[in-house]
Amino acid sequence: MAAMVVGALLLGGLALQTFSPEQFEDENAQGARSAQRVAEALNAALAAADNPQQTLNAFATSLRAPAAIAFVPSGADWQGAASDTYRGSVPAWFTALLQIPELGSSHPVAIRTAHVGDIVFRPDLSAEILEKWVGFLAIAGSSAALMLLAGLSAYFTTGSALRPLEQLGAGLTRMRNGVYDAAIPLAGPPEIRKSCAEANELAATLKRLSRDNRDLLRKLVAVQDDERRELARELHDELGPLLFAIRANATALSDPEAEGPPEPGSPAHGILAATEALQQANRRVLEGLSPVYIAELGLAASVQALLRNAQSQAPNLQVESRIDHRLNDLDGLLAQTTYRVIQEGVTNVLRHANATEMDVTATVNEDQIEIEISDDGIGLPQDLTFGRGLTGMHERARALDGDLQLCREQGKTIVRCGLPLDHHDAQ
Ligand SMILES: Nc1ncnc2c1ncn2[C@@H]1O[C@H](COP(=O)(O)OP(=O)(O)O)[C@@H](O)[C@H]1O
Ligand SMILES: [Mg+2]
């Protein structure tokens, strides 16, 4: 727009430069002719006069007032004085731009062939230059104002036409980020209104699908937990008594005379040792399958027990923990999920991290539970693929509208999980 204004001004300047010299000449041609006639008349009057010097003096006195036509006695310079008359308040560059032609003229006056002076014509152009200057300013000002107005109206018109498109774009971005509730306002031309309405429909469908998906995940998690509980019950009720029976019978098989445990190396001792190992493995599997303590001990104590167990499995690992006692107020799926996430995170550190330190925190905030398991081990592999553990953690977190992040910060591998407290319970 600025370029257009400058262009218009340059064009105006060029037109002034081209046409104004001719215009000046036309406007002053009459004056120049009058000067010539005055000179002719004066010469004729002087030739006819008895006392020409007196006639000339009377004539010069009558023309004394500043005027375009004057009598200049011979020897006086009039050109320089005249050239300054049309400067006034107009800038010099503008006067130069006008290329004012030489308009003055002089006509000799003689008394009996003796040259006594000249009738000179020196037009005062200041009024005409000022008029052109004012015209130029008016055109420049109004064209600049017009362009500004045109620019402003284009800006506002385009802005209001683009706003619905911007809102549509923002709505689609929200949808990509999983926010489906804020509807896109229906505005703008019919095609855009239609697109906005369809995008809103799409958001409603995505919201429904996402809810279905979450419900399915919840059911999946619940089914998994039920199965694990069932399996744990079977292992506990069926395998437990049988192992106990084997143990008792192995003891009875050994020399009935001998007091105390069977002798090392004897078959009975072998059976007893194997049975004990089986019982221990059974207890470990049972613990993994079903966190039976949550209901009895509360979540915080169950997590502490889990950590103690981890410590006993890895005596060289330094385990730090901050477990919020308010976890005990939780129950149901939320408590189960919190326990499982910590359990899987800790198991992964023991299995994969090769760490010297492990830090476990679980805090209950205003609106969510924050879980963090960090270790100073080797870090997640470059080509990490989720196994059953991380997949299960992820599914459990999503089932409760929570989120799970795995990252490496300041030499630590961190598993972070946020579980909202106000999740909607599965129907
Ligand atoms: N704390 C950790 N440090 C290093 N690697 C880890 C850690 N946690 C998980 N991983 C990597 O992530 C992979 C997937 O873990 P997961 O899904 O629990 O399956 P699994 O433990 O059965 O291998 C692991 O095989 C391991 O390579
Ligand atoms: Mg694992």
Over the alpha carbons, how many angstroms does the gyration radius reach? Answer: 53 Å
Strand order of the largest sheet: 4-5-6-8-7
Structural class: alpha+beta
Largest sheet: 5 strands, mixed
What's the average pLDDT? 85
* Strand fraction: 5-15%
Query: Which ions, cofactors or small ligands are bound in this entry?
Result: adenosine-5'-diphosphate, magnesium ion
Q: Helical percent range?
A: 55-70%
Query: Can you write the helix and strand succession as a string?
Result: HHEHHEEHHHHHEHEEHEE
> Number of folding domains?
3
> Which regions have little confidence, pLDDT < 50, spanning 5+ residues?
80-85
| Count, helices | 11
How many strands in all? 8
Distance between the termini: 64 Å
The global form is rod-shaped
Task: Set out the fold topology.
Layout: H1 2-48, H2 52-62, E1 69-73, H3 79-83, H4 92-97, E2 105-111, E3 114-121, H5 126-176, H6 190-253, H7 267-289, H8 293-297, H9 299-313, E4 318-323, H10 332-353, E5 357-364, E6 368-375, H11 388-399, E7 403-409, E8 412-420
Parallel strand pairs: 4-5
Antiparallel strand pairs: 1-3, 2-3, 5-6, 6-8, 7-8
Helix pairs in contact: 1-2, 1-5, 5-6, 6-7, 6-11, 9-10, 10-11
The structure holds adenosine-5'-diphosphate and magnesium ion.
Overall description:
With 427 residues, the protein is of the alpha+beta class. It has helices at residues 2-48, 52-62, 79-83, 92-97, 126-176, 190-253, 267-289, 293-297, 299-313, 332-353, 388-399; strands at residues 69-73, 105-111, 114-121, 318-323, 357-364, 368-375, 403-409, 412-420. It has 3 domains: 2-148, no CATH class; 178-290, no CATH class; 296-427, Heat Shock Protein 90 (2-Layer Sandwich). The strands form 2 sheets. Strands 4-5-6-8-7 form a 5-stranded mixed β-sheet. A 3-stranded antiparallel β-sheet has the order 1-3-2, with helices on one face. The relative contact order is 0.06. The two termini are 64 Å apart. The structure holds adenosine-5'-diphosphate and magnesium ion. Adenosine-5'-diphosphate binds next to α10 and α11. The site of adenosine-5'-diphosphate has 18 residues, from α10 and α11.
